[in-house]
């Protein structure tokens, strides 16, 4: 079986899908084509002959169908965040699109509820995202010495208000007198090495799919402080993470309190590191590989 991922080949999305083509092989042969470029109809006519399925976000699947004549029976739509569903649902015909495509999946259980709330009758399958946990350097810090924040500092283009709120994490760093390590310009092939330079990871999003950076930090054994988004409400429970309130002032105060606990009790920090590392192993691609392969083959 052959699959073509039609995705943006950059940052977290690029990393996820470049790992997926390794995860699914040899049972499923995969390639990637970047959806930020334009292609001819002839190009996709040839691709239709080569690949059994085209996998992308629901919106990009609609582009494949509308612009490149890829039939519904070759399309598998996977929503990685709420915007992947929100961007396509504008009419009853759009909702019916989810019934027509061959496969419909999401990467966490919250997105099932969001899908239903948009009036989509079809219940999607959950296919979890993982990491190659062995590729991440293990945290060797004995205490909290800085705060890491990777990715977009803010994002408001799709909602009209900032849903990333990186300034909140920066405020926590300033209050606790810890260096704020922020990077967003590193190629995804090198991004795992960013975690060499941090001892605590934070995110402050109002909406997220995973978030990817949380499971990457945990793969290193770095404790994570973040909001109740994506799968974080599931993976923090084993002790390597802490849920912070959404409200800005409470978010900052709760984070400061937790960091001060770590500062005053280094043994508590070390325990959190070990629990985070154990959770990282539970989110390795090897734990989810079979689900992906079985689902695609079942279609």
How would you summarize what this structure contains?
Helix content is 41%, strand content 14%. It is built from 12 helices and 11 strands. It has helices at residues 11-23, 41-50, 58-68, 82-86, 92-100, 109-117, 166-175, 212-219, 232-235, 248-264, 266-282, 289-298; strands spanning 2-7, 29-34, 53-56, 75-79, 103-106, 125-126, 147-150, 180-183, 201-202, 224-226, 241-243.
Tell me about this structure.
This protein is α/β, with parallel strands linked by helices and about 300 residues long. It folds into two domains: about 1-130 and about 285-299, Glycogen Phosphorylase B (Rossmann fold, 3-Layer(aba) Sandwich), CATH 3.40.50.2000; about 135-280, Rossmann fold (3-Layer(aba) Sandwich). It contains twelve helices and eleven strands. The strands form three sheets. A six-stranded parallel β-sheet has the order 2-1-3-4-5-6, sandwiched between helices. Helix 1 (about 10-25) links the parallel strand 1 and strand 2 (about 30-35). The longest helix is centred in the last third of the chain and has 17 residues, at about 250-265. The chain is globular.
Low-pLDDT runs of 5+ residues are: none
Work out the helix count.
12
State the CATH architecture of the largest domain: 3-Layer(aba) Sandwich
Structural class by helix and strand composition: alpha/beta
> How many separate structural domains?
2
